[in-house]
Amino acid sequence: MHAFTWFLILYSGSALVGVTALWFFYDRKDRRSFEARRRQKVFHCVRCGGLYSVTKANVSEGEPCPDCDYKNYELSY
Ligand SMILES: [Zn+2]
Q: Do both 18 and 48 map to the same domain?
């Protein structure tokens, strides 16, 4: 086989590997940030109107606002 053909095969092969590696990297990164966002509980303070979030698992007892300490309950989606 021609030397140039081999070069072409190796070149496109390494490009394919590179793209696949990038895809894996960004796919994992996306999933991780999505997981982090999913665990976050968002609160809206009814007293001062501020928005804040925590990464606790159980917030059924409410979370105090970081600005005014008023206890708010999780926003329902
Ligand atoms: Zn507040």
A: no
